Amino acid sequence: MASQILLRTLPFAAMAAVAVIELLTARSLGLLPLLTLGPAFAALRGGVRDTALAGLIAIVLSAPLAYHDHLFGRPQITTLIAIVGVTAAAMLASRLRTEGERELANVRTVAEAVQRVLLHPVPRRAGDLRIALSYISAAVDARVGGDLYDIARGPGGIRLIIGDVQGKGLDAVETAASVVGAFREAAYDEAELTDVGRRLEEHLARQLAGEKFVTAVLAEVREDEIWLLNYGHPPPLLLTCDGRIRRLEPPEETPPFGLIALAPTGPDPYGCTFREGDQILFYTDGVIEARDRHGTFYPLEERAACLLRAECPQAAIDLLERDLTAHVGGPVPDDAAMLLLRRERPRGPGPGIDRRSLAKDGAGRARAGRSRKGGTRGVNNPGGVTWRPRR
Fold this sequence. Notes:
CATH superfamily of the largest domain: PPM-type phosphatase domain
Number of strands: 13
Strand content: 15-25%
CATH topology of the largest domain: Phosphatase 2c, domain 1
Shape: elongated
Structural class: alpha+beta
Strand order of the largest sheet: 3-4-5-6-9-13-12
CATH architecture of the largest domain: 4-Layer Sandwich
Largest sheet: 7 strands, antiparallel
Distance between the termini: 60 Å
């Protein structure tokens, strides 16, 4: 707001300064040509009319100042020609800038429409979960980049995906749309989270060319626990109700989608307890790879522990987003997405995804899936994270 006010007053302040200096000095300093600063500055912010008004004021001021400096004649004509010429050029520049801003607004409108189709708004509440989202695109002229996220209802609980497509531009957007579409279909149909990952890998094997890949984390929230599949993506952060924070690292590193063939098997599912008051932050590498002017990476774990304690999850993640932007000191150089899950005491049916209907719709398929696979049992390790071996 302050910068906008400065740009509006700058043309007139510049011309006033030239006039005052000329009137207060006994000898002419030859500053009359500097009156052209008025229309030149006006073109930075104002429209064609504002620029023309600044040029007219400059012409009007030039007459008494020329009389004061005894510059009537050829010097005065030269000054007038300079003012008229600069004003005309500034008016043209102002018109071109206005047209460019109008086109940019249209591009942003289209980009927002694409985002609503590709990355539809997630529900703010799903049973006893409260959900918050932050998405920053690295593209200046649009709001859709290579990061992706989605939440769906599966047979065993709430399922979600957050991922990052290699590359930039329209190719990355197309791949992200493909991943989200495949996830929505598989999340509803498959009884096991590993089968969702298998469906995505089969889908992307037909879509990706060369050495392109997609990193992602798949998650399924169940009663008092959450299960994860990590495909080469930064691990989520668990913030417990007692203030502890830890990364939910997978038992073994696994290549991302598109490069699974490099590993003997896919990732093993692993999980941890997820009780009332706990929070889990999912994020993309654009968050942890953001640097300040000294090259220091953003300390996500340290900042998340301090900033994600607000009563409203969306307010908390908005605060974290502003802190990230302040750390960089400008636009974030890469796409950055953050998805926050907070488990609270159930409040009964409400907007979003109803866990009771979830259990009713998916119980049959979940039982069938377990009977087909012969069942699985978790194995607890000393670190508090549970992993489930692949059969």
